[in-house]
């Protein structure tokens, strides 16, 4: 059996995700348990990896960037493009550690998928999955084959919980940067950009919709209690009214949307893909 060969874009895409995961995890752990002052380089490196991986996906999906309305229309509603521009924005601004959480989570799944679909078959050709309709051989019981099966099972089992985790983290990121804008801890532009991003995610992701509905329900109950000051309830209702008006504006999402966060595994081989998708089976669950 010939050993599978990964294309250069595929390898660059995977390298970007590995850098994002390794550097991002190092930064998040450092911020949580140590001082964040000397860790900013890891934050920068993590987003550099994200720019590489998303850049490959967007380039493969849309080609060389063009300064015309047709290109802008094709790319504006694509989730990969949205995540690419967000990564660029976070990369050039003051670190906000929460913003790395979604990227690190996506990269974990993509690194594991790359390991299963590319690294193991290249290093151990006998561990490649048997074609459909054929029975498993003794080779499928080897340690590499078992490792491949374990990774596949783990990814499918944890995909939905991870996407729910990402959805909640993105809601909390918005709360953090909105509060940061009010207290002048971050740019006033940040919540405006992120609100547009979340609006797109709300339309395209069932996980994001569920997260907003749950958080909204919790806040509604808390602000509706007798002990809650009236001005807090009034402020909450005003904010919810603004959010609902903004979210209710009709979006024109392309039927053949090319994208999503960090590309799918199918996209990984071509370096282009679907939103936050990891593997064909898991990806279908995410196509809201």
From TrEMBL:
It is a multi-pass membrane protein. Residues 264-288 have a biased composition (Low complexity). InterPro entries: PER33/POM33_regulator, TMEM33/Pom33. One of its GO terms (cellular component) is endoplasmic reticulum. Residues 259-288 are annotated as: Disordered. Pfam families: TMEM33_Pom33. It is found in: Membrane. It comes from the Eukaryota. Keywords: Membrane, Transmembrane, Transmembrane helix. Its main location: membrane. One of its GO terms (biological process) is endoplasmic reticulum tubular network organization. The chain crosses the membrane at residues 12-36, 42-62, 83-106, 173-195. PANTHER family: TRANSMEMBRANE PROTEIN 33. Belongs to the PER33/POM33 family. This is Endoplasmic reticulum protein. It comes from Pseudomicrostroma glucosiphilum.
């Amino acid at each position: 059996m010939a050993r599978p060969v990964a294309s250069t874009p595929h390898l660059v895409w995977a390298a970007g995700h590995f850098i994002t995961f390794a550097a991002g995890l190092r930064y998040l752990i450092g911020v949580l348990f140590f001082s964040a002052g000397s860790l900013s380089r890891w934050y920068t490196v993590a987003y550099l990896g994200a720019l590489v991986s998303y850049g490959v996906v967007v380039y493969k999906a849309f080609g060389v960037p063009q300064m015309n309305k047709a290109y802008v229309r094709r790319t504006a509603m694509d989730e990969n493009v949205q995540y690419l521009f967000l990564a660029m924005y976070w990369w050039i601004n003051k670190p906000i550690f929460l913003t790395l959480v979604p990227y690190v989570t996506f990269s974990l799944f993509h690194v594991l998928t790359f390991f299963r679909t590319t690294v193991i078959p290249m290093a151990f050709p006998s561990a490649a999955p048997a074609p459909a309709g054929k029975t498993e051989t003794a080779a499928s019981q080897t340690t590499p084959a078992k490792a491949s099966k374990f990774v596949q099972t783990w990814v499918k089992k944890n995909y939905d919980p991870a996407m729910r985790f990402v959805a909640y983290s993105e809601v909390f990121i918005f709360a953090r940067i909105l509060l940061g804008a009010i207290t002048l801890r971050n740019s006033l532009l940040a919540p405006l950009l992120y609100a547009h991003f979340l609006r797109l995610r709300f339309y395209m992701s069932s996980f994001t919709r569920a997260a907003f509905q749950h958080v909204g329900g919790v806040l509604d109950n808390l602000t509706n209690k007798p002990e809650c000051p009236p001005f807090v309830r009034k402020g909450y209702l005003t904010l919810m009214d603004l959010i609902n008006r903004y979210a209710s504006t009709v979006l024109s999402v392309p039927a053949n949307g090319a994208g999503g966060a960090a590309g799918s595994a199918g996209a990984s081989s071509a370096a282009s893909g679907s939103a936050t998708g990891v593997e064909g089976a898991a990806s279908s669950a995410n196509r809201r």
